[in-house]
Design brief:
With 164 residues, the chain is mainly alpha-helical. It folds into 2 domains: 1-82, no CATH class; 85-164. It is 74% helix and 0% strand. It has 4 helices and no strands. The protein is extended and about 55 Å long. It is a multi-pass membrane protein. Keywords: Cell inner membrane, Cell membrane, Membrane, Transmembrane, Transmembrane helix, Transport.
Length: 164
Amino acid sequence: AGGPLIKDLVEIFSACAIGSSMAGASVSLVDFFEDAIDTFSQDRNSDPLTDKKGADAGFEAPSKRLLAAFCALGPPVILAYAFPDIFLVALEEAGLIGGVSLYGILPALSLLSLRHSACTTVDTPDLKMPGRFGGGDTTLYALAGVSSLLVIPEVIRFGSMSVS
């Protein structure tokens, strides 16, 4: 269906999509670790906004970037070499657990937290939030509960798996 040229183009497109996704995730993770190194290398008594040395007080930029890259990319590479067949299993598990957590549990808990913090900080009892989720807190608790019920058996099953 389409011949060898279409097949080759689809493979090239797939490789580019995976590569660009991995590159973006890798760069953002390295930047995250670089910021964490900045945070932990600062003197706890100094103010980073007024301190002229700033966040680079503990490390020079190239060594900090190299350490951040090792912290971000080292553990996945080591795991991939130690357990070459674990990638697809981890991807399958992270797909369900990560997706349900990211799109089910976290938004519900975030909205509940926002609603309760808004009620305690604002004196207006009839505060209307834009885009309010229908059903009130009951629906949010139900969403978090159903999402948790989907994830819990997978977490238990994942925890009881043996890597061989």
